TrEMBL record:
GO MF annotation: an example: serine-type peptidase activity
Pfam families, A to Z: Peptidase_S49
Isomerase listed as a keyword: no
Organism field: Natribacillus halophilus
A single GO BP: proteolysis
Keyword Protease: yes
Keywords in alphabetical order: Hydrolase, Protease, Serine protease
Protein name: Protease-4
Residue ranges of domain Peptidase S49 in the record: 132-283
InterPro entries named in the record: ClpP/crotonase-like_dom_sf, Pept_S49_SppA, Peptidase_S49, S49_SppA_C
């Protein structure tokens, strides 16, 4: 057996091993741990922590931190910084509480899934229109792409001068980060024998080159979702469509640049945002309450597992989950 065939055999074995590992991780990562540990979690999905006592009104602070993706509730192998369903529950609780005058959302996120971003956006508009709640956004280090999408309908948006925001656009990729291995596999003498029922069934496959008509088809899909993003900003920020489209080329902006471009209303910290809400709502001494995650048994187990296996394995699981299939994302990718 010549060297080329030995190399091809070793690559094939490696690919098989990676596939088996992926299946194992995917099985673990998608297991219904909520069912496994049913009854072990606490009754309440979150707790209220009073940050400032007061006697005139009530303001709730929520945290939206990390990639906006729904990886399943009570999954101990999911990233621990963001639980999508829990965040939606917190928003529901704040908007339905008649003692709450306003909601401030701290956003520190590069964006994420289209559906998840749109679900939060819809919750914000529901709080405003159906429950007459003012919703303010305080941007942290990053509020890009989907992180800006969820902020667009807010009554007031503030950012730190060094906040990275914008990145208005859509990313569509498949495989591992959109990489294509067709030429490498050809050089190694490895063939993909996948059988499909149509010419587009394996579109975005990393083992073959993309055809021109396929690229045009996918570009149309991405452009359609960009139109939705633009509409959200036009409506939420009351900006002319042509101005929004000029900004919707994927560029990122600092807080100061975003202010100049009309994407935000002010520059400042969370305290500044709370003070602005207090003044605008005419509250002299409001109570400020932060909704915090209340870790159940499964979540605590996840933290222990994360400590045992290390950050590298945790990151690997996250990557395998995110990169396993083609997807449209409102996501800032560095």
């Amino acid at each position: 057996m010549n060297v080329k065939r030995w190399v091809a055999l070793l690559v094939a074995v490696a690919v098989l091993g990676i596939a088996l590992m992926f299946n194992m991780f995917a099985t673990i990562a998608t297991a219904d741990f909520g069912e496994v540990f049913e009854g072990a979690a606490v009754d309440e999905p979150y707790v209220e922590e009073i940050e400032e006592t007061g006697t005139d009104g009530r303001i709730v602070v929520l945290e939206l931190e990390g990639a906006i993706q729904d990886l399943g509730e009570d999954n101990p192998f999911a990233p621990v910084d963001y639980n999508h369903q829990q965040f939606l529950d917190m928003l529901d609780g704040a908007m339905e509480d008649q003692t709450v005058d306003g909601i401030v959302i701290e956003v520190d996120s590069p964006g994420g899934g289209l559906i998840e971003s749109d679900e939060i956006h819809d919750k914000v508009t529901t709080a405003q229109e159906e429950f007459d709640k003012d919703v303010y956004i305080s941007m942290g280090g990053m509020a890009a792409s989907g992180g800006y999408y969820v902020a667009a309908p807010a009554d007031y948006i503030s950012a730190h001068p060094s906040t990275l925001t914008g990145s208005i656009g859509v990313v569509l990729s498949g495989g591992i980060g959109g990489l294509n291995f067709s030429e490498l596999l050809e050089d190694l003498g490895i063939e993909d024998d996948t059988i499909t029922t149509g010419p587009y069934k394996d579109i975005l496959s990393p083992t073959r080159e993309m055809e021109d008509d396929e690229e045009a088809m996918l570009q149309d899909m991405a452009d359609e979702m960009l139109d939705e993003f633009v509409d959200v900003i036009v409506e939420g920020r009351d900006m002319p469509e042509d101005e929004v489209r000029d900004l919707a080329d994927g560029s990122i902006y600092t807080g100061n640049q975003a202010l100049d471009n009309g994407l935000i209303d002010g520059v400042g910290s969370l305290d500044d945002t709370l003070e602005t809400m207090q003044e605008n709502l005419g509250l002299s001494n409001p109570e400020v309450v932060r909704y915090q995650s209340e870790a159940g048994f499964a979540s605590l187990l996840g933290g222990v597992v994360n400590e045992i296996r290390g950050d590298d394995v945790s990151d690997l699981v996250s990557v395998l989950q995110r990169e396993s299939s083609p997807r449209l994302m409102y996501l800032y990718e560095q």
